[in-house]
Amino acid sequence: xxxxxxxxxxxxxxxxxxxxxxxxxxxxxxxxxxxxxxxxxxxxxxxxxxxxxxxxxxxxxxxxxxxxxxxxxxxxxxxxxxxxxxxxxxxxxxxxxxxxxxxxxxxxxxxxxxxxxxxxxxxxxxxxxxxxxxxxxxxxxxxxxxxxxxxxxxxxxxxxxxxxxxxxxxxxxxxxxxxxxxxxxxxxxxxxxxxxxxxxxxxxxxxxxxxxxxxxxxxxxxxxxxxxxxxxxxxxxxxxxxxxxxxxxxxxxxxxxxxxxxxxxxxxxxxxxxxxxxxxxxxxxxxxxxxxxxxxxxxxxxxxxxxxxxxxx
Length: 313
Description:
With 313 residues, this protein is α/β, with parallel strands linked by helices. The chain has 2 domains: 129 residues, no CATH class; 167 residues, no CATH class. 44% of the residues lie in helices and 16% in strands. The protein has 12 helices and 8 strands. A 6-stranded mixed sheet has the order 1-5-6-4-3-2, sandwiched between helices.
């Protein structure tokens, strides 16, 4: 049966069980044409369902391969050895929804408009978001914010590091969207407040704060990426269930800090409100009528640049 479920829209958690999803997909349209993308360390199996006749499958392959490249580069390897990606063709253009879970191995379902072209797919964030989910162990529904927040934070950074997004774009989006993750009246901390904003952007804010704090404490020698790579290197993925503290402790050990465990304890049961304007000023980034403006003389400008710098090698 389905072991875990991660999706880019919380309501997708109301979908049927993995058993019924798989059988329904296999019954639709007979035997869908499959193809594979071979990476150095993984195989991606692509399955088409629905009315996919009008889809340009070469463009779909390029889109999936580009997302895999971003995730593989960020983590130093692809998070799982094999993943099935079920492209569910529907009306319209672009990617509409995504879900990552385990059913006889890692499985990603993405709804895609059958008239999508290369430009539609290049603008998409859902495929990379879902692939980032492959790198986090199942840690329990109470901690969904750690899973969704991770995918929300890492997706644009991973894409920027391989040149798929600009620095201006990702920092503009952070300045605009991170406030959606701040606690509102009645908030009881991230483990206990399961609104959309707190789950996705509250989780992303946790990882941004952790990334900056790790880099401050280590003189910018290590960042969140180093900790996340350690989780994957030790076998952490969507295909296993781990204790949340064990998971965070593995990442902390790789950076020589206790940042993730300590920040988790700060934010899990209390409505922490970080001073975002002060953080943006220290990082040297602000919004102007003309777009995103950087101050390379800001105290943490080096950290800002390091967050989006491609990993060595």
